[in-house]
Amino acid sequence: MPLNSYRFRSVWSVDSTPAxxxxxxxxxxxxxQWWREVRDARQVGEHAAELRCRSxxxxxxxxxxxxxxxxxxxxxxxxxxxxxxxxxxxxRIFPEGGxxxxxxxxxxVVRKPLLRRLAIIGRPLLRANHELMMRSGQRxxxxxxxxxxxxxx
Length: 153
Description:
This protein is 29% helix and 44% strand. With 153 residues, the protein is of the alpha+beta class. It has a single domain (5-145), classed as Alpha-D-Glucose-1,6-Bisphosphate, Chain A, domain 4. The chain has a 7-stranded antiparallel beta sheet with strand order 1-7-6-5-4-3-2. The longest helix has 27 residues, at 119-145. It is globular and about 45 Å long.
């Protein structure tokens, strides 16, 4: 695997029905309301948005996410990513007790020139940065689904 390619998987649990969780995750424009590191989301199509993300490292990643699968009955959301990140991302949503279990998979190639140049030394930092972003996203989504003020505020 090239040094600028990444595969990530995260598993989250939330206290919300799969249907409600699906609706929130399908709304790309709402991500900045609950995920602090998603700094901006601009709709560019009916099922597409341009997202700007930044975690602890001092750089932004800007990419478009285009849903290519939106299957509420199957609990599947999948999107193609194009921009500073090229690849795919998916959410699988399963009932779990009174809530939901979410499986997030991402397979991307980093296209941002600076990050490509720093791939050898920066890879561990990028992976750690991603992990921090995912933990924050899980906390924000749990808070948002519980009806509390948005995590992005």
